[in-house]
Structure formats: C-alpha cells, structure tokens
Amino acid sequence: MSQQERAGLTALSAVLSPLEGSGPKTEAVVQRLSAAISLGVMVDGQQLPSELTLADQLGVSTMTLREALAVLREQGIVRTKRGRGGGSFICSSAEALEHTASARLQQMSLAELRDLGDAQFAIAGAAAVFAARRGGRADIARLHALTDRLRTSTEPVAARRADSRFHIEMAVCAQSTRLTRAQVDLQAELSALIWLPRLELDPAAEASVHGDLVRAIEREDDAAARELAESQSESRIRRLVALRMELSDR
User: Fold this and answer.
1) Dihedral (C-alpha) 31, 33, 35, 38: value to the nearest 10 degrees?
2) Cβ-based neighbour number of residue 158 at 10 Å
C-alpha cells in the first residue's frame, strides 16, 4: 500500500468516527460526509456504506442518518438508487460544493465566523505543539507529502483536499484522538469556505507555510510550530470575515 493510500485510510477513519456531544446530530452528519467528499476520501461515483453500517460508524440512529442523506441529496452531493444494486452514491461536483459553501457563508453571522476561527486557532496550535513533541517519522513523511501535493496543485479542489488533509494529519501526528476528531469537524465546516475562489488563496504560498511548519515539527520546536499554525489560522479567518462583510454590503 502506498503512502498516499495509508494517509487516505487515516483520514477516512477520522472522518467516519463517532460524533461527540449531545447536540443535534443531523447537521453534524451532513458536515462529516461533506468533509469526506471535500477531502477526497470519498470520490464521485463511490458507494457509501449501508445505512446501518454508516450509522453505526458515526454513532447515530438510522433515522438521523436518513435525514442527513436527504439533505445531501437536496444539495446534489449524494444520489440514492433503489432496488437491486442500489444504495447511496457520491455525485458531487466542484460546482455543487462551491455553490453550497457560498450559500452557507452568506447565511453565517460574523460572530459565527469568528467563533469558528477561534476554534481553528486553538486546535491547530495545540495539534502543532503535540505533533512536534510526539510525531514519528511516518507521520512527518505524510505531512511532507501533503505539502508537496498542495504546492503542485493546479485546481482548487485538489488544493483544498491537500490542505484539509494536512491539518487532519497534523492532529494525527499529535497522537490525539480528540484533537483529530475536532480537526475533522472544523475542516468539515471550514475547508470549502477557506478555498472559495473569491478568497484567492495561493496553493504555493500556503504550501510554503506548511513546509515551515513541518520543519519546525521535525526539529521538535513546538513554540515555532504553534506560532506558524496559529498565524496561518488567523490570517485565513481574517480574509474570510472580510469576504463575508463584502457580501453583506451588496
């Protein structure tokens, strides 16, 4: 199995892990499955696990899962085929994901965006610190590979996937299940927003920050790793808030 395939399995296991908390679960399931698609862990045409299996993996009832699948069908991200050989299949396109993300951004308040940014600031910083203290060679190799993938990305979808996977794998590198699950949830909410074309993120520039971050992790410099992760998170949320304010002025 290639290094890329191992990274995919790691990301998939993180995405399809049980949801935590006691709040509404339907939207959380929608975000998780959207994250799997956004990350490229689930691809166009792929069949989802059976409803019973998927509900068990996410720790929700089958009714909650069916409600989430109905939302994803309305968004054009999932299609369901009945009868023999049937099931639910990924049918997402870059255009559908972009449309959904743009609509969601316009519905969010500035307070919600800043709160989301605060969470990413905290989680990314903590993951960077513990990755520097605990990361192994294989973990760091995955981070290097994802940095290279981001640097050479020529399409927004590929760049978004490499970037999101990087942040999840950094939490994996920190050897913290809770940080990994928290980062998965954050990427489910943030990744499509951060990589909206109108934000004009430069994959090469973002990869340069990732490269500096991985080198700090390699030399076990947790302070530098934290500073880099927090600075990138802060910069991105500022740009996202500015775009949201621009849209509200129209």
Assistant:
1) -130
2) 16
In order along its 250 residues, the chain shows pLDDT tens digits of 444 444 444 566 767 778 876 667 898 888 788 777 766 677 778 888 889 999 998 999 999 999 999 998 888 888 888 877 778 888 866 676 777 788 888 888 999 999 999 999 999 999 999 999 999 999 999 999 999 999 999 888 889 889 988 999 999 999 998 898 888 888 878 888 899 888 889 999 999 999 999 999 999 999 999 999 999 999 999 999 999 998 876 6
Per the document, the length of the chain is 250
Total domains in the fold of the chain: 2
Q: What domain range includes position 14?
A: 3-93
Token pair of 172, please? 């994996």
103/24 same-domain check: no
